[in-house]
Design brief:
By secondary structure, the chain is α+β, with helices and mostly antiparallel strands. It has six helices and 13 strands. Among the domains are: 124 residues, no CATH class; 72 residues, no CATH class. The chain is 39% helix and 23% strand.
């Protein structure tokens, strides 16, 4: 479905605006040019009674569906179709406001569509024809397909892709030199084969080395023993390796060591002598093993 069908008439926001009042008539004077109709059927009845069904004499040059279901200024909700009209035979501008319901939209759309054909006929010499629009759309689609084909990755080892590349070389070289270029294109293809083969060999070697590095790193991670966890027993912080008491220190990023001791059942006190620092792990000063301290560490 097109956008024109899926959108409601009140969802369009037309550029600029048209004032409902005639500039040459004071606002406090009623010249019969501003009309308010209580419903869509009432508006159609007005057209019948006043002979305004001719779209040439009653030329609708602008329409705006003004809809505000919850106005901020405390006014009543609006659902109005505003029609700006020129009575062409008299040069007389008029404005019609029609109180609408959502159920009136199909009938209003059909009526406006009929009036739009009259306005379009006035500007027809300057508007693109349907055939021109169709050709423009076809050309746009062709260009999009061409762009997408160039965006698609080329596989040098694909016969169809190789043929496209060679054809492009021939066209380019013949345009530049004005002479047949099949032999030169074939020679360039052979050079390209050699260059791409070298690149692919290097890529394969790089991938092989990368795989070896990752395998070595994984082996190192597998062989390195996990860091053991310190425990608290009888008010002492015990090394999980050697069992020594209160021999664990906190190491900062400057390799400074700060002694730890138990403050409570789940809190370890840190004797900080060097101010703020970045923690770089824990270590037992007796056996020099790295240790994990799973407790809250607070400065003394």
């Amino acid at each position: 479905m097109t956008d024109q069908v899926t959108k409601h008439l009140w969802e369009y926001d037309h550029p600029y605006y048209c004032d409902p009042h005639n500039w040459f008539v004071p606002l406090d004077q009623d010249n019969g040019q501003n009309h308010i109709h209580p419903s869509w059927p009432a508006f159609l009845g007005f057209l019948d009674r006043n002979g305004c069904n001719d779209p040439d004499t009653f030329l609708v040059f602008r329409w705006d569906w003004d809809r505000d279901e919850d106005p901020d200024d405390g006014d009543e909700p609006r659902n109005d179709l505003n029609l700006s009209v020129m009575l062409q035979s008299r040069g007389d501008y008029g404005h019609h406001t029609v109180r609408m319901t959502d159920e009136d939209e199909p009938a209003a759309r059909a009526w406006l569509t009929e009036r739009a054909s009259t306005t379009a006929a006035i500007w027809e010499p300057l508007l693109p024809t349907a055939e021109a629009l169709k050709k423009a759309e076809e050309e746009t689609q062709r260009l999009r397909a061409a762009v997408e084909s160039f965006r698609a990755p080329l596989d040098w080892h694909n016969a169809d892709h190789r043929a496209r590349i060679r054809e492009g070389m021939v066209d380019t070289l013949q345009t530049m030199t004005g002479r047949p270029a099949e032999d030169i294109a074939d020679q360039l293809m052979r050079y390209s084969d050699s260059a791409i083969w070298a690149v692919e060999c290097e890529q394969a070697r790089t991938a092989e080395l990368a795989g070896a590095v990752h395998a070595s790193a994984a082996e190192v991670d597998r062989l390195e023993p996990p860091v053991a966890t310190a425990t608290i027993r009888d008010g002492w912080l015990l090394c999980p390796h050697c069992g020594d008491r209160d021999s664990i220190v906190q190491i900062d990023s400057a390799t400074r060591k700060h002694r730890l001791s138990v403050a409570s059942d789940d809190v370890v006190g840190r004797h900080m002598a060097h101010g703020d620092f970045v923690v770089d792990g824990y270590q037992c000063t007796t056996c020099d093993h790295k240790v994990d301290v799973p407790f809250e560490v607070q400065p003394d």
